[in-house]
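We give its fold:
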Amino acid sequence: MYWKLVPQAASSKDFVTFWSSQYSYKSGIEDYNINIAITPIVQLNIQKLFEWKNGSVLSTKKQATLNKIIEKLPTINSLKAEWDLAMFESEFNFLPSIWKIFLLHIIRPEEYPIFDMHVYRAYSFIINGKSDELANYNNPKKYILYKERYLPFYSSITELSGCSLSDIDKALWAYGKFISLYRNMLHMNT
């Protein structure tokens, strides 16, 4: 890993410790913490989690997509009890990649980390020494990037740092947000 390219980080543990302390997300983290831990999951939990992910109440179009997810609550709870990735992908193939990945996280939060534009930007910079944007990729490619590249990267940080998954998520989000805010000052290529 290119920790030398990451300010304040001599190691992955230093990176996570420093950047997780910089995490500042909109209100609602309590809703996330409460609802992610509930089993079996019910409609209200799914609604709160997707609203947290969205940062606000869902638009009519997004709510319609969420309603299709809610219709599959028995499948979701079955997958929480007995994981089957092939079944998940078959049942939820209709979802946009970021929502599919977030649903993976809801079902198996210890195995599937949150993935968004900020954590992808952080990942890209740590791996390649330059920032890349998730918006540069089409919907199916985002899911492939997540499974084939981001998950192994995330696993290596988990192993190397010994830090909690929550702190790793916070650190990557905060670092990616930092890059987006100060890209011009840092003279980064995108």
Notes: The CA atoms of residues 120 and 134 lie 6 Å apart. Residues 139-161 form the longest helix (23 residues). The mean pLDDT is 89.
